[in-house]
Amino acid sequence: MSEVLKILDGALKANASMAGNYAGLLADKLERSGEREDALRIRDRLARAPSAMAFAQDGSRMTTAVPTDTESRLDTVDISYPALQAEGFHLPSAAAKRLQEFVATVANYDRLAAAGIASVSRLLLYGPPGTGKTMTARQLASELALPLATVRCDTLISSLLGQTSRNLRRVFDFAEQTPSVLLLDEFDALASARGNERDVGELQRIVIALLQNIDALPGHTVVVAATNFAQGIDPAVWRRFPFQIPFSMPDASLRRALWKTMLRNFAPASLHWDELVHSSEGVSGAIIEQVCNDAIRTAILAGQPEADPTEILRRLGIAISLMNGHHLPSIEDEVRWLRQWRSEAFSLRELARLYEVSTRQISNMLRGQNAAKGTGKKNRSG
Ligand SMILES: Nc1ncnc2c1ncn2[C@@H]1O[C@H](COP(=O)(O)OP(=O)(O)OP(=O)(O)O)[C@@H](O)[C@H]1O
Ligand SMILES: [Mg+2]
Question: N or C: which end of the chain has fewer CB within 10 A?
Answer without folding.
Answer: C
